[in-house]
């Protein structure tokens, strides 16, 4: 019994250390890539940061155009402004910054999958599926926040942006991860 407790404690300790290292590695990456508020030329590695920002710009535009399409399909007239703001006509809309695209969440999810006791084919499947799920949820989040802006503006920032959509995205990813672990244990 004591040996089993020691093994469980070591596994939990090892998992905790791995999770802290994953978190720290993202912090180091962002320190190297730079913050969105810092001009690219003032960052540690401007050339690298320029490529990072181009990738962020590309993904932001894809998400905004997809959310714009979805809102059009739902019958709303929308405007996409400066490839940063999507809004339903007559409303404030949603500004999507480069650091609201889910890269951090994708990284954390992929790293969680990589440190799990899953086979490599399942890890590859889970990583790709997780990235797709995150981006589909991002598109739904941008469209959903616009709909909340139109119909329930009083809940816009605090409740919707900061809590509801985060809960939904994290909940979906955790359910997917749980399903992966259950399926691989069979």
Enumerate the spans where pLDDT stays under 50 for 5 or more consecutive residues: none
Describe the largest sheet: 3 strands, antiparallel
Nearest-angstrom radius of gyration? 20 Å
The CA-CA distance between the termini, in Å, is 25 Å
Pairing-aware structural class of the strands and helices?
mainly alpha
- How much is the average pLDDT? 90
Shape: globular
Helical fraction equals over 70%
Order of helices and strands: HHEEEHHH
Strand order of the biggest β-sheet: 1-2-3
Our count of helices gives 5
Number of strands: 3
Proportion of β residues? 5-15%
List keywords for this structure.
5 helices; 3 strands; 186 residues; 5% strand; mainly alpha
Describe the structure concisely for a colleague:
With 186 residues, the protein is mainly alpha-helical. It has helices spanning 2-33, 46-73, 103-114, 120-151, 156-184, and strands at 78-81, 85-88, 94-95.
Summarize the structure in words.
The protein has 186 residues and is mainly α. The protein has helices spanning 2-33, 46-73, 103-114, 120-151, 156-184, and strands at residues 78-81, 85-88, 94-95. A three-stranded antiparallel beta sheet has the order 1-2-3. Strand 1 and strand 2 form a beta hairpin. Helix 2 crosses helix 4 (120-151) and helix 3 runs antiparallel to helix 4 (120-151). The longest helix has 32 residues, at 2-33. It starts with a helix and ends with a helix.
Walk me through the topology:
Layout: H1 2-33, H2 46-73, E1 78-81, E2 85-88, E3 94-95, H3 103-114, H4 120-151, H5 156-184
Antiparallel strand pairs: 1-2, 2-3
Helix pairs in contact: 1-3, 2-4, 3-4, 4-5
